[in-house]
Amino acid sequence: MLIEVVKSKIHNVSVTEANLNYIGSITIDEDLMDAAGIIENEKVQVVNINNGERLDTYVIKGERGSGQICLNGAAARKVAVGDVVIIISYASMDPEEAKNFSPRILFPDTSTNKLI
Question: What is the pTM of this model?
Answer without folding.
Answer: 0.96
